[in-house]
Specification:
By secondary structure, the protein is of the alpha/beta class. The chain is built from seven helices and twelve strands. Keywords: Cell inner membrane, Cell membrane, Hydrolase, Manganese, Membrane, Metal-binding.
Length: 255
Amino acid sequence: MNPEQHVFLSDVHLGAFSQATNQHIEDDLIALIHHCARHKIALYVLGDLFDYWMEYPDQNYVPSLGKNVLDAFEEYNKSVAPALYVTGNHDNWTFGHFKDRGFDVEPNFRLLELEDKRMLLMHGDGVASSRIDFPRAGFHKLLRSRYFVDVYQKVFPPQTGVKLMKWFSSMTRKRNYINPKPLNRQAEKMFNRHQLDYILSGHDHIPRKETFGSGEYINLGTFFNHRSLALYNNSGMQLVRWEAGSQKFTTFTGN
């Protein structure tokens, strides 16, 4: 597949809201996935599709959360191409289910070249690589470590463990993501040190485009609130809003 359009989204946080709100988010996201499948648009998820996601491989336990969304993605992955899924700090506890659904799963970051443009795709909570100068904080390293997951799953059975993780996720989501400055500073550093045209991330929930030198940093914002996305085509990279009712992308104005 050589798509003419590419869509990047993050921070859907399925499972974080009331049943009615979750259903609305799911419906709009499924409409987007079907739209991308019909028009052969490449899809990239840059983390936190779920507000919490923890598989228990030793007990063959997979959360029932977001089944319809994952079914839609699986159909897309088979009929179009595997969507890239860069796991975030709320949904990195996967042990094969996303791959079984056909995703191209990336737990760290991905360098992508489209035409003559070089892009760094990440969630935004840091990366584990000496190649990219954006180390994860100790807290995020702990949450992503296999040792932590092994101990956590030995102490808490699936129902208790997932319930506790949902509560913990809601607390960190509310507390941490209100300031654009840290990711802006980090993006500026990376543009100074690496040959990049675009850096894309989510994580801090503030949709925006910032120019640093010859590159652009795009924060995708939140699908759950803004329905904001990045759309790349022959016109370049745009920050847009998905309008599920009209099946269109419109310019994101910040409202």
